[in-house]
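Saturday, quiet lab. Running sequence design on the structure tokens for the scaffold JK sent over.
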């Protein structure tokens, strides 16, 4: 299962669609998912918003009354790298190829189910978070769920599942696992892990972290010599690989 990060708060969506009923419907679904939506019915106003606002993802209709979606996509790509989803009424591949060539990340053909749009938005934001951690952190977008190859941990519900089977963790074990997942790909020194989880100064010869890592591995069914998730970097600390 691919790595997954879900649930974002304060993500800002730029929506440009000249068919008001469609725009309004998409807006409702996106707001229900907790996003802030900047909705426009023309390209000129949308471009002004893109320049002055903090945007995390754009949904652009190809056919607009003034500036077409391709041009808007090109202008956005001159400065910004957030995901762009194109909307079009055409069923051939010409628009799709054009959009992807100039920097769009996804493409949806009308008519569509608004639930599909919402799902595509989540997918693109997820990928954006995975590959742009520094940018997201700087914008204070809060990641509350991580899924790393089937190991799912949710900070809001304090639940952990492995291949959809719930694993009971103590608060300390949960905090250790969350910190490693949140910093996946990085090697976390034992000292840092102890101080972040226990909130106390780390002293030499402290085996507390090692003992808890051992119990976590047991609960995850991890073989001691070749763990799949929590790996030891000898002399340094622990890591969960991206």
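Result came back. Writing it out in full:
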């Amino acid at each position: 299962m691919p790595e997954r990060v879900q649930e974002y708060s304060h993500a800002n969506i730029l929506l440009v669609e000249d068919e008001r009923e469609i725009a309004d419907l998409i807006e409702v679904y996106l707001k229900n998912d907790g996003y802030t939506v900047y909705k426009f019915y023309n390209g000129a106003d949308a471009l002004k918003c893109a320049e002055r606002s903090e945007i995390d993802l754009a949904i652009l209709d190809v056919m607009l009354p003034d500036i077409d979606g391709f041009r808007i996509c090109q202008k956005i790509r001159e400065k910004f790298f957030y995901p762009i989803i194109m909307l079009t009424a055409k069923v051939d591949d010409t628009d799709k190829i054009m959009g992807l060539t100039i920097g769009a990340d996804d493409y949806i053909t009308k008519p569509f189910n608004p639930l599909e749009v919402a799902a595509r938005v989540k997918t693109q934001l997820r990928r954006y978070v995975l590959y742009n951690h520094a940018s997201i952190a700087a914008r204070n977008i809060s990641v509350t769920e991580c899924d790393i190859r089937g190991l799912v941990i949710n900070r809001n519900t304090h639940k952990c599942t492995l291949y959809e089977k719930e694993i009971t963790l103590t608060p300390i074990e949960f905090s250790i696992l969350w910190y490693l997942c949140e910093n996946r790909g990085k090697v976390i020194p034992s000292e840092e892990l102890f101080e972040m989880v226990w909130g106390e100064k780390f002293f030499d010869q402290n085996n507390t972290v090692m003992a808890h890592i051992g119990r976590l591995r047991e609960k995850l069914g991890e073989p001691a010599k070749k763990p799949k998730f929590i790996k030891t970097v000898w002399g340094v600390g622990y890591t969960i690989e991206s």
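Notes for JK: The CA atoms of residues 217 and 230 lie 7 Å apart. Residues 1-7, 133-140 have pLDDT under 50 and may be disordered. Ask whether to fix the surface positions before the next round.
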